[in-house]
Amino acid sequence: MATVHLPSITRVAICGGTHGNELSGVYLVRELQKRERETQKEAEPVSVVTVLSNPRAVQQCRRYTEMDLNRCFTSAILSKPLDVGALYEMERAQELNKILGPRGSTTAVDLVCDLHNTTANMGLCLITYSDNNWISLHVMKYLQREIQSVPVRLVDLGMPHSEAYSLESVGKHGFSIEVGPQPHGLLRADIFNAMQDGVRSMLDWIRRFNSGTIFHGGEVDVYTMVRSVDYPKDPETGSISATIHPQLQDRDFCVLRPGDPMFLSFTGQTQLFEEEEPLYPIFVNESSYYEKGIAMWLTRLRRVQIPPLQVQAD
Amino acid sequence: MATVHLPSITRVAICGGTHGNELSGVYLVRELQKRERETQKEAEPVSVVTVLSNPRAVQQCRRYTEMDLNRCFTSAILSKPLDVGALYEMERAQELNKILGPRGSTTAVDLVCDLHNTTANMGLCLITYSDNNWISLHVMKYLQREIQSVPVRLVDLGMPHSEAYSLESVGKHGFSIEVGPQPHGLLRADIFNAMQDGVRSMLDWIRRFNSGTIFHGGEVDVYTMVRSVDYPKDPETGSISATIHPQLQDRDFCVLRPGDPMFLSFTGQTQLFEEEEPLYPIFVNESSYYEKGIAMWLTRLRRVQIPPLQVQAD
């Protein structure tokens, strides 16, 4: 494939606390801000802005206060005139869009990286809206080489950018980084370190890219969202009647074949996976998805050819 | 040691949801209530009452709504006249004390078993106020024999019953059962099943006890609370500046020797354990203890001689 040339990435935003109880991002952003205050600004070609996205939710150590901030970056909400008494997260989304965007404008930062934790065994995972964002795919390939402590993968939401709803969509480029497993509301050193390594390697990649390094193309694995699956529920009470089967728990990104165990009911019955084709479950038993009616997402694994990449000459 | 004879245990309370986001107990109590409705009451010598302790917190999937219910069973709160606008959990504690107690009275249920989850790697753990509650120690010994899927242990709070603050203290006998690791706000099949096995075996033990079985004495391990340890904190902001060291994370009930790593700061410095004697950490990185300033408890391990036990003849 022919080398793709893209403009340099000179303004990067690193955001944590978009969900207030996902503590690795909260503490990593605070740590970066502290180091920024303590060290002399080096004359660097990359300017990094760090943002604590939902300070009110962080303060309360909750996912959100009134509605999920990471579902507020839709065109409808970003353009809505907000009256007195508007939901806090809607106001904050508009504010963040002003600071880091506005989305689709020339003033938007070049790259938004939004840091998240999950209770699922996801390792370190980049999430993007499409599979032809060469920067995300090259960063992922670079992280796979640089990071040994956890597996690194990329999930493609497979939706048009016009339907975007999450914070990273306000930048010219963007992705979220999910790291897990970590219970919400606490910090594990292994997960914090994996996130810190991910951010450090990403900035390293950006510096190399800006300085003219040619990144070779090749094949990478991409997991594309197919559909979500809810927990089995009691038809009368609407309450969950089964958990993730022990043979599936903690096996995010592992193939699930037709006939494999999927759920185990409280009375001991196994429910099998009845899809026609093998798929790859992710976000298996993510605690904050209970309220969304999502026990896991099913994805399709594809090999994607990516082109060599180099910064545009001035 | 001479055989100890104790009255039969005819009324048992099994409580879940004392903390509303510890879901194994919530769903196990609901499941037991469902089975109770669906099956004919057998003519059994044990009457089991199941209680969802904090329904308002369960509804919101939070630990508590206004204050930690499991710290409300103090003599001061239980005897306090409650005005209009009193905290919900204080009212509920008095209500539960009426239903299951009152504490110290002859009408109190014989045994209260309160079900909890922890994010720490605690296996299945009975918690009692003292180490001479022969029923708790014998139940623990029986569970160690019956349950293979997780380790079973007993923690002794080592405090006089007059200082009791938790739900199980309203029964004539009582203990809480902690099962983990499980993030709060979700259900893992392995942890749910371990709790279910624990409750089943406990009821089995009670039936055997009531029917006259002699339980042999012997030696058991007891972990007695020594003191709690807080996370290192930034002296200026009061914010956490380190996590549990990766070598200590998930090693609840494993010996910690002077000089062993204890914390790892965000900048990579290791803080060592500086006690004089080896101790045994428990509740290592329990998420709900962040607000209480507890990174872990340190316990002392002792071998305790327990006497043979048999029900009193009528």
UniProtKB/TrEMBL annotation, chains A, B:
<keyword id="KW-0479">Metal-binding</keyword>
<keyword id="KW-0378">Hydrolase</keyword>
<dbReference type="Pfam" id="PF24827">
    <property type="entry name" value="AstE_AspA_cat"/>
</dbReference>
<dbReference type="GO" id="GO:0004046">
    <property type="term" value="F:aminoacylase activity"/>
</dbReference>
<feature type="domain" description="Succinylglutamate desuccinylase/Aspartoacylase catalytic">
    <location>
        <begin position="9"/>
        <end position="205"/>
    </location>
</feature>
<feature type="binding site">
    <location>
        <position position="22"/>
    </location>
    <ligand>
        <name>Zn(2+)</name>
    </ligand>
</feature>
<dbReference type="InterPro" id="IPR055438">
    <property type="entry name" value="AstE_AspA_cat"/>
</dbReference>
<dbReference type="InterPro" id="IPR007036">
    <property type="entry name" value="Aste_AspA_hybrid_dom"/>
</dbReference>
<feature type="binding site">
    <location>
        <position position="19"/>
    </location>
    <ligand>
        <name>Zn(2+)</name>
    </ligand>
</feature>
<protein>
    <recommendedName>
        <fullName>N-acyl-aromatic-L-amino acid amidohydrolase</fullName>
        <ecNumber>3.5.1.114</ecNumber>
    </recommendedName>
</protein>
<dbReference type="GO" id="GO:0016324">
    <property type="term" value="C:apical plasma membrane"/>
</dbReference>
<dbReference type="GO" id="GO:0046872">
    <property type="term" value="F:metal ion binding"/>
</dbReference>
<feature type="domain" description="AstE/AspA barrel-sandwich hybrid">
    <location>
        <begin position="219"/>
        <end position="300"/>
    </location>
</feature>
<dbReference type="GO" id="GO:0016788">
    <property type="term" value="F:hydrolase activity, acting on ester bonds"/>
</dbReference>
<keyword id="KW-1003">Cell membrane</keyword>
<comment type="similarity">
    <text>Belongs to the AspA/AstE family. Aspartoacylase subfamily.</text>
</comment>
<feature type="active site" description="Proton donor/acceptor">
    <location>
        <position position="178"/>
    </location>
</feature>
<dbReference type="InterPro" id="IPR050178">
    <property type="entry name" value="AspA/AstE_fam"/>
</dbReference>
<keyword id="KW-0862">Zinc</keyword>
<dbReference type="GO" id="GO:0005829">
    <property type="term" value="C:cytosol"/>
</dbReference>
<keyword id="KW-0963">Cytoplasm</keyword>
<dbReference type="InterPro" id="IPR016708">
    <property type="entry name" value="Aspartoacylase"/>
</dbReference>
<dbReference type="Pfam" id="PF04952">
    <property type="entry name" value="AstE_AspA_hybrid"/>
</dbReference>
<feature type="binding site">
    <location>
        <position position="116"/>
    </location>
    <ligand>
        <name>Zn(2+)</name>
    </ligand>
</feature>
<keyword id="KW-0472">Membrane</keyword>
